[in-house]
Write a structure and sequence with these properties.
single chain; 350 residues; alpha/beta; Quinone Oxidoreductase, Chain A, domain 1; 2 domains; seven-stranded mixed β-sheet
């Protein structure tokens, strides 16, 4: 089969790779219909992951068609159109059966395409994927959900929804979203769903600020960010901040922007264990600070009806469709943020 393989920093290549096979009774073999680049894939691309691994398939977002299932797999059969959660637990513990794979009784959850750091599973930017714990990892795609809508349900939209929920948003609240990649833009959309009256959107890329404005958010750029937001928010700090960047600058900005007894929700990914956390400042404001990875499956029961009903139009963050054979160029374009790129979906048949 063909796949995108990580060979080192900024070196992802379209190569031949041994075919994925059904590896056990709890697995399903799935033919990939569409796969996508996630912002967290860029950490691998830049060589930021604390793992020496190379030679593995990258990617953790895909939808496809079931080809074969193991003897313990229930409810799925060849020909089914499915999406696969990026977060993978076990096939049968009580928490995973409820979708809460972050609480798996049998160990930490894993993720495709992260090398040995998160389970040593092969990635999904390829033609065939062996899906572990298929009973709790796969979900049938309803017939009224498109491929583009479905692939956002694999990771980006559930992550954004969790970020918004962890921000304690209530009707009438004012919210800031820092970082307007696909997840940040979906955070803005989710904040409105949860009742936010005003959403302020911070980024450096003009096209992303314009997209946020089309959702009803107030774009913020340049200097004096705090003063701009105070002026637009009737002179008072915001109730909640969602940070999708997770670096020292974005976190300290988050703590400055939130009101006293407000909430900062962190859903960006970082691999540093060294950070000068402004504890006295955070405590003096009695801020709630939440940081999390998403149990994707737990968010599906609420998100799928919202997508079906047209309340969330997540698919609009997808700007480019390319062939998997163009994967190296797709990564380059995503990193460069050129040509209006927000999110790229790839077709393994091309």
């Amino acid at each position: 089969m063909k796949a995108l393989v990580y060979l080192g920093p900024r070196d992802i290549r379209y190569k031949d790779y041994p075919d994925a096979i059904l590896g056990g009774p709890d697995e399903a073999l799935v033919k990939v219909a569409k796969t996508a680049i996630c912002g967290s894939d860029l950490h691998i691309y830049h060589g930021e992951y604390p793992t020496p691994d190379t030679g593995f398939i990258v990617g953790h977002e895909f939808i496809g068609e079931v080809l074969e299932v193991g003897s313990n797999v229930r409810g799925f059969k060849p020909g089914d159109r499915v999406l696969s959660s990026a977060s993978i637990g076990c096939p049968d513990c009580p928490e995973c059966l409820k979708g809460r794979v972050g609480r798996c009784h049998k160990g930490p959850f894993s993720c495709y395409g992260q090398g040995s750091m998160m389970g040593a599973l092969q990635g999904v930017q390829t033609e065939l994927v062996s899906v572990p714990a298929a009973n709790t990892t796969l979900r049938h795609i309803p017939p009224d959900i498109s491929d583009d809508q479905a692939i956002l349900l694999v990771d980006n939209l559930p992550t954004a929804y969790l970020g918004a929920k962890n921000a304690d948003i209530r009707p009438g609240f004012s919210v800031v979203v820092i970082g307007l990649g696909p997840v940040g833009l979906l955070c803005a959309e989710c904040a409105f769903i949860l009742g936010a009256a005003r959403v302020f959107a911070i980024d450096l890329v003009q096209e992303r600020l314009a997209y946020a404005a089309s959702l009803g958010a107030i774009p913020i750029k340049g200097d004096n960010i705090q003063e701009q937001i105070l002026s637009a928010n009737y002179g008072v700090p915001v109730d909640s901040v969602i940070d999708t960047v997770c670096n020292e600058f974005s976190l300290k900005l988050s703590f400055r922007l939130a009101r006293k007894e407000g909430t900062v929700s962190e859903i960006g990914v970082s691999f540093t264990n060294s950070f000068n956390f402004p504890l006295a400042h955070v405590q003096s404001k009695s801020l709630a600070f939440r940081i999390a990875l998403t149990s994707v499956q737990e968010e599906w029961p609420e998100l799928i009806p919202l997508v079906q009903g047209g309340r969330i139009k997540s698919e609009n963050v997808i700007t480019h469709h390319m062939g998997l054979s163009e994967g190296a160029e797709a990564y380059r374009m995503t990193v460069a943020r050129e040509a209006g790129v927000m999110k790229i979906v790839m077709d393994p048949s091309k």
